[in-house]
Amino acid sequence: MLPAAVALRRDIHAHPEIGLDLPRTQAAVIEALDGLGLEVTTGSSLSSVVAVLDSGKPGPTVLLRGDMDALPMPEDTGFDYASTVPGVMHACGHDSHVAMLAGAATLLRRHERDLTGRVVFMFQPGEEGHHGARFMIDEGVLDIAGPVDVAFAIHQSPNYASGTMTTKGGTFMASADEFYLDVVGRGGHASAPHQALDPIPIACEIVLAIQSMVTRTLDIFDPAVVTVAHLNAGTTTNVIPERAAVHGTIRALSARTRDLVHHELRQLATVIATAHGATVDFQIVPGFPVTMNDPSVADWTRSVATRILGAEHVIEMSTPIMGAEDFSYVLERVPGAMVFLGTCPEDVELASVAPCHSNRMRLNENAMATGIALYAGMALARSEAN
Questions:
Q1: I need a labelling partner for 368 at 20 to 30 A (CA). Which of 126, 226, 242, 275 fits?
Q2: Cα distances (angstroms) measured from residue 272 to each of 233, 344, 347
């Protein structure tokens, strides 16, 4: 089944789309599912595809999710199937997720006699910061075939050996929020700073104070990462600006620490600015919540993967990672687990591989056969357990 999956992945890779509106990708998914006899529906507020395989026999409802969207960034891989859309690239491997999930639908249809219950295939736009999973939940993806008993998702990663599966129970990935902090002073002439209220040194003081806040306020065993990724102020060399922008992200591994950082960051910025006579415009844009794997489902997932791949290819993560995922919205509502599928290219060492979100990210397409087997195997194993 690998050649068909590779062809689908390369077609989507060459024509990437971003956000919630992915009409071409949606059409490619529908075409790939054509002839399988699945109940296929599409979203109204986003270009989602939901396909249901109903065995006609009593049993569990298993949800399998694959995200579909690309990133707003250039591609520099040199592939003959590289992005044809300037400034847009499948640099996170969602194209492979789509292809593997479509392959799993074909495989499960062939093994329908071994299935009980229902399988819901969730093809989701808008994972890259657009909350696509939340939109699909609002449109009923968790109820379309009755209550979901277990949910499973794969994310490819070149940072793991090709063909391996890695996961853990409990906290799997971090929450991710954006903060927008603008220090407001008074503009003036660079030769007379005493007649102005320069926001730039105040902003710099806040940036340095954030680093101390993280290391001296938060529990080291319940960590967070606060990254200032954008600084902007002024227009020329002899003008003191009125505003200085300090923007970035907040990532945490628990709801408690997430809330604490929100509070401490706002207080820190306000107090420092006030001490200098300035004010702060402060906004936090909530992102994805913490991704929490159900511990029992994660254990079960590893046992199923061991049967499929062999114990040497199944790895238990020792710690969560600080990236974020909107599959967290699904896992807040139903028991489930997310895993990483290793896709490190054969000609690259793990230590030097281009990671997800790199303009040079590439993956070992042979590992997609493993992904197809894992998607299908989880549904079949749940039927056996029933």
A1: 126
A2: 18, 46, 51
Q: Can you give 74-142 as a three-state secondary structure string?
A: CCCCCCCCCCCCCCCECCCCHHHHHHHHHHHHHHHHHCHHHCCCEEEEEEECCCCCCCHHHHHHHCCCC
Looking at the predicted structure, is the pLDDT value of residue 11 above 80?
A: yes
Q: What is the rounded distance in angstroms from the CA atom of residue 180 to the CA atom of residue 371?
A: 38
Q: What is the pLDDT of residue 385?
A: 72
Structure tokens at 195: 């007649």
pLDDT in tens, 130-174: 999 999 999 999 999 999 999 999 999 999 999 999 999 999 999
Residue where the block lists tokens 């929100």: 262
| pTM flag (> 0.85) | yes
Phi, psi (deg, nearest 5) at residue 302: -65, -35
Domains observed in the chain: 2-173+290-385 (3.40.630.10), 175-285 (3.30.70.360)
Rg (alpha carbons) of the chain, rounded to whole number: 23
What is the dihedral angle through the alpha carbons of 304, 306, 308, 313, rounded to the nearest 10 degrees?
140
Give the separation between CA 125 and CA 127, rounded to whole angstroms. Answer: 6
Q: Which residues contact 179 (CB under 8 A, 6 or more apart)?
A: 247, 248, 249, 250, 265, 282, 283, 284, 285
| CA dist., res. 132 & res. 116, Å (int) | 29
